[in-house]
């Protein structure tokens, strides 16, 4: 389960202590926890331009500055935990600023489908009173976002610090936190939306079908299939394609099995091989796709955003060169005699900074020697369809075992029709006993446990 705490103040005081107590108790070892602190992580007020509502979320002036990250964290969470003290009988202003930014997600407009399968817990404290209205400020939005299950707890702590809270109040808090915890569903796919969420959904659906709503919103509902048979709380099951016997990773029949070809071998990339690596990307890797010729396999080391920003080929080449020379970019070169026929980007997960930082790739504890990543495979056009990908996969697995790794992970695209499957097609991972660990929006986390021979 992926848990996101949204703290309505920067103070780690009573409200935070209570919410954190809940999060610590509800978290299992396989869960992930992220925390947002307001206003630090979303410092801007809504400017009221209304562009998110009339033109789309990405038109918000804050989208690329703060909102994209916050939205990603919210969307990826299975459990949202809000924590706000009561300030003058309401949620803090910074909580309101965050909620205002999601006006376009109210069910009258364009709700995010995953909300219906999320759970939320909202905590509020006050010295004396105001918790109820503070909580309502949040639950009004959560209800209209379509959040499947919402729990609240407000408590008058009669203090502005945890140390000042009386023991009897702390005991009451302790009991209530446990009670809410027991209601949380740990299997994200098993959350069913409340009657309220479904009633609101059907009411809005009716309005859209009758043509009472804004066109952009109705188009969205149509596109999501919600005006037809699809419901946002239906769980999509990851159904990776099965490999058919006798087919290679590319989906083509294997005519000439590799590595029977005498001269072809797989070598671990070392800094001394940097010229071969660069020559391959300069000349052969994308001889059929000139538009990708500046790739140099940098995405996993720069992160998607920087990768998209860094567009000058010479600069990318230089960065790749440095990464290889520093031993950070690691993997395998596939040689046919002296000629490089392909490349596989693989190495210790800890060396892939952006992968480790991106919550989407999170599986569990990352420490050197624990998880080996197979991030990318690129075979030169003349060598495709010959089973090279399988041979590379076997080599990666063999090495991982020898090197003492506990897991090998790959991140193939969930769109199996995508024409350039540079992360390796999902069926290749299946064939080699990888299991689906988690389905993300556009890729699968496939993972194989490496058992040591005894
Ligand atoms: C600006 C401000 C407004 C507040 N308004 C109220 C209020 O309306 N009702 C109340 O009982 N306490 C009010 N308080 C007190 C806090 O809500 C209360 O001490 C709360 O538990 C503090 O939470 P924290 O320890 O997590 O910061 C206010 C405090 C501040 C700083």
Class by helix and strand content? alpha/beta
The level-1 CATH class of the largest domain: Alpha Beta
Question: What would you say the CATH architecture of the largest domain is?
Answer: 3-Layer(aba) Sandwich
Q: What is the strand arrangement across the widest sheet?
A: 6-7-8-9-10-12-11
Number of strands: 12
- Bound ligands, each once: flavin mononucleotide
Continuous helix count = 15
| Main pleated sheet | 7 strands, mixed
Looking at the structure, the CATH topology of the largest domain is Rossmann fold
Rg, please?
26 Å
Question: Could you name the ranges where pLDDT drops below 50 across 5 or more consecutive residues?
Answer: 237-262
End-to-end separation: 33 Å
Q: CATH homologous superfamily of the largest domain?
A: Flavodoxin domain
Gross morphology is: globular
Mean pLDDT value: 89
**What percentage of the residues does DSSP assign to strands (E)?**
15-25%
Q: What is the domain total for the residues?
A: 2
Provide the helix percentage: 25-40%
Q: What sequence of helices (H) and strands (E) makes up the elements? A: EHEHHEHEHEHHHEHHHHEEHEHEHEE
